[in-house]
Each structure stands twice: as structure tokens, then as C-alpha cells.
Amino acid sequence: MLSSSDLSKVHHTGFDLEDVKVTFLHDIKINVAGVDITGKQGEILNIQRWVADVLESEKHITIEDTDMVVELKQATVKENVQGEFELATLEPYFYVRLIAFMKRLPKDDFDKVQSMLNSLVRKRQGKIIHLADSSQLTATLSQKLTLEERSFYEKIYNTSNDFKKQILGDKK
Length: 172
What we know:
The strands form two sheets. Strands 4-1-5 form a three-stranded antiparallel sheet, covered by helices on one side. By secondary structure, the chain is of the alpha+beta class. The protein has seven helices and five strands, in the order αββββαβααααα. Helix 3 (68-81) runs parallel beside helix 5 (107-134) and helix 5 (107-134) runs parallel beside helix 7. Strand 2 and strand 3 form a beta hairpin. It folds into two domains: 17-63, Ribosomal Protein L9, domain 1 (3-Layer(aba) Sandwich), CATH 3.40.5; 68-168, Methane Monooxygenase Hydroxylase, Chain G, domain 1 (Up-down Bundle), CATH 1.20.58.
């Protein structure tokens, strides 16, 4: 099984390879690590996120990304509406997308969003611990979890089973 940091790197790599919509700030013809990019001022194109990050850092484009603060607020509301042991569905790269979005926020906004994120994580973490302690991961539940949460679920499930075996022994 991958370590948490290795899993995070794999998820970030997958996220960085996804296309993102960008708007060119001026005419440009450039090669970024072997990838040729050509665009005219005001033109909107889809390019891989890792290339967009490089171009945005050099002020060549702006990334037209989903407002993840709105998505975080919606996810929090959905989570609060669910029952005590029911999880709302989050898309697999939800946290990766949110963290990438947060990196571009001013410090004050970053702190506010991080506080909202901590609240959502605590609520989901409690539900996942309860569910993992009581049952094996089902296909339905798996679809509701992010990639990181699935890994967390499996670790809690395995640890819980090991603990029960220590106390109760193997079932015969």
C-alpha cells in the first residue's frame, strides 16, 4: 500500500495532467518543457494544468478555474444535511483541486477557507471512522469518498479488524 505522501503525489500528478481552461493575457508562442503553446490575447484554450501553472506564474495567462470556495460551501451544506453516519458525495480530486485553488488566494482569504475546510474534514473524518469500524467498504460508499478518504477508510478498517482480532482472536 502507498504511504500517504506517495498517494498524495500520485493524486497531484493526475490532477496536474488534467486540462484546464485558460485565457491568454497577450499573444504568445512558447515551448514549455517540450510542449508548444500558441495563443492570442483574449483567446481561451484548454491546456494541461501543469503547463497552465507555469504560464500563469509568468503572467502569460489566467486560469479559469471553478470557484472552489463555492464548492466547499456546497459540500459543507450537503454534509451537514446528511445523517449522522451518512456521507455526501465528493468528487475524487475534491481536496487536491481545493488546495491548488487555495494556494492562489490572499492570506486572509486562505485562512478563512482553510477554517471551512478543517470543519468539513473533521465532520467527514468522524463519519468515516464510524463507518470503517463497522463495515467493509462498499461500492456505493466508495463512490462518495475522495481518493484520500478511501485510503483513510481502508487504514481504519484494517486497524479496527486487527484490534478486534487481538482481543477476540480469529473467528472459527
